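Q: Convert this sequence to structure tokens.
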Amino acid sequence: MADPAARPEVRPVPAGGAPAADRDRDRDDDRGSGTVHALTLSLVLGVLLVTVLLLAQAGIATHRAGKAADLAALAAADVARGLAAGEPCGTAARVAQANGAQLELCELVEPDRVVVDVGTAVALEGPLARFGAARGVSRAGPPGDP
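A:
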């Protein structure tokens, strides 16, 4: 028989209404989920940041290739018109190299051969290297030429 002096265990009921043990049991399934969510969010933000930086690097290389093509075409057109001494494509190659690009194309356009088409390339570095080089093209000649 049970001792009449023994009392049954009384658990305090918090303001929320459920006993503390029941609340802890419900929270056990969610323990550590905040850490997992924070790590996942950090990983996603890191991947996005790296992607944006790689796109910016590709954009900068494309602008450099375009700038080098413009300057090389202008210099080659000046030589083709006789405003400067030298050979047009050799001048274009030197100007492109001075601007961090390689000359890929240099053509004097017929019939007058004073308009020059130039193509340049700037090598991409790092993970973007497998996509090839950034390229720029330009045409220059005397004013008023179509």
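Residues 136 and 142 are 21 Å apart (CA to CA).
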